[in-house]
Design a protein that fits this description.
Number of strands: 2
Radius of gyration: 18 Å
Largest sheet: 2 strands, antiparallel
Order of helices and strands: HHEEH
Distance between the termini: 34 Å
Shape: elongated
Strand order of the largest sheet: 1-2
Length: 89
């Protein structure tokens, strides 16, 4: 499990990026890069880290399922992911 402070920081970044998304797009389209630099750093969507929705693990994140590879493996083994089966040959 990730530290609570890291999870809170990431959710704060998500909210801020969402709040400034329209303004960022307008400034980018206008080419006003000086005004873009005056926006808060955390308003940039690039700073958001993809994290596992169950454990908060940041590494080995699988976008398609929204979980880390460890959680993906456990969920697939338990049959909680539709259409995912264990390969055998």
């Amino acid at each position: 499990m990730a530290k609570k402070s890291q999870l809170a920081r990431n959710t704060k970044r998500m909210r801020m990026a969402e709040r400034y998304a329209v303004k960022r797009a307008a400034l980018k389209a206008a080419g006003d890069y000086e005004a873009l630099q005056k926006l808060p750093k955390n308003a940039c969507p690039v700073r958001i880290k993809n994290r596992c929705s169950i454990t908060g693990h940041a590494k080995s994140y699988m976008r398609q399922f929204g979980v880390s590879r460890q959680q993906f493996r456990e969920m697939a083994r338990r049959g909680e992911l539709p259409g995912v089966t264990k390969a055998s040959w």
